[in-house]
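Long-time lurker. I teach an intro course on protein structure, and each term I like to show students one example going from raw sequence to a predicted 3D structure in token notation. This year I'd like something fresh instead of my usual example. Would anyone be willing to generate the tokens for the chain below so I can use it in lecture? Attribution to the forum is fine with me.
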Amino acid sequence: MRHLWILALITAALVIAGPLFLDRFTVNVLTRSMTFAILAVTVDLLWGFTGILTFGQAAFFGAGAYATAMVLTHLGSTPGLMVLGLVLSIGLPVLLAAAVGWLTFYPGASDFYATVISLVVPIVVTQLIYSGGTWTGSSSGLVGYFALDLSLGGYFRLAGLSLVAVVVAALIFVRSDAGRVLTAIRDNETRCAYLGISTQKVKIALTAVLAGVTGFAGFIYANSSGVVAPENAGFVFGTQLVVWTALGGRGTVIGPALGAVAIDYLSAQLSGQMPFLWQLVIGTLFVVMIIFMPNGLAALATGWRRMRRPADGVSPELVALPPRAGRGGPAGAEPLLQIEKLEKSYGSQKVLEDITLEVRRGELVSLVGPNGAGKTTLMRCMTDGKVASGGSVRIHGTGIHGMVPDQIVACGIGRKFQVASVFDSLTVAECLRMARVSHESPSFLRSADSLSLPQAAIEILRLTGLDQHLGREVSLLSHGQKQSLELAMVVSLEPELILLDEPTAGLTAAERATIGKVLVRLTSELGLAAILVEHDLDFVRDISSRIVVLHQGRLVLDGTVEEVVNDEIVKRIYSGGDHV
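-- Reply from a regular --
Happy to contribute to a lecture. Here you go:
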């Protein structure tokens, strides 16, 4: 962090001194370029860090620029009106982005849908500008208004220092615990939802805040250029921002900022020297960079750092949390989970039919059946209130119908998937912190030096050896370590009921034994309930308190281990096989 502040101070000093030794043309062009670079940073935060490819930042920039220009043109340029222009240039894009985000990031919406909407928004805003008549200047834009009383050098310093501030703030944020949530959403949005994180709210909030930043850039642009035009809010400009971000190196913050400044300045120089060929030259440069440096210029520096980085980074100190009030309880109490006449159909085909089941604290219920029996579908119905076609699922007597996964997690349900669902770009410690986001608000300014987890999660880490690799990137872990990490993440949620879909798939005998010990302790000693989907009959026999058999979408048996293993119906279903 010290290096960041030193670099920021050096850059700020260069910006302040810049107008003293740069010619007028260069100062003018770089003022615009640095303003555009602010927009490129916002695109990078959305695309590079969160995985939302957006072309809509131009629309928010244009809205901010036009809000300023309209105030200065039609109302005046007194200090009070200048403040009004600043407020509107930030507030209007924020409101517009919040509305667009609400329409875009609904539960289940795809990333492709969000990208399409971001293509439409600049077109709509541009058409509004065209139809604004004298208020917006229509196709001619607005020009000739009185702006801030600053010299050309003053605008250069304003744009440059604003860019430095935005870059520093962005770098501090993305390195913080809260900033890592963006990377988690990019890597695995489904897992985020099943950790209780409302990805919809995060995306809407991020879009709105960054729209405010682009609106502020629009305020600077409207004042420094003295003219605003529909092109400032258009689709073409939005595409340019994406290209600059890609060529600079998305996911780096500094790369897109430098890319925007360099490419816009180069374009301005070439357009004067080669008026008929400059676009061909720029286009050729783009193609060459895409072929030879597909990850952008900044990838050269980041790749070098990765080569020098050790496999295990800095490991935070593990701290055990006290048990949460209301979690756990005596076994055999009132049902924790109640399923009544549950059904799931795909058209005329019924996958689940008339499923009725109860689970109490302290029970480890194994859900078995042949492939296609509906086991995983039943898991989905218990963790997503929009999946079931009929019947009811209640937790503590409260129905979950219509709830999305993050709301159901808040009711005390944790789910482990069949294929380890983790965050490959994060470290082990950062993955575990994601499981605590729904309980503890992460810092926006720093990454914590300690990692506070429930005692049960810490024991999983110690049993599996992951406590020695908290600073290791998850992509470097083995299959078994990823399975253990996901289980530790689910336990870190402090759920009352854990759903596990084949947690021992692909594990060695020693790893299966470790997972079995953990599950038995969670249920028998800590009072949690667990539903386990498993094909290994020996594993099921050793740890289960009950076994539930599904066959062709129907519950055919619910009993003790001995009752199920010796039942004639079960023997007929599996024809005496060793695995269920």
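Some talking points for your students: The longest helix spans residues 199-225. DSSP finds 22 helices and 14 strands in the chain.
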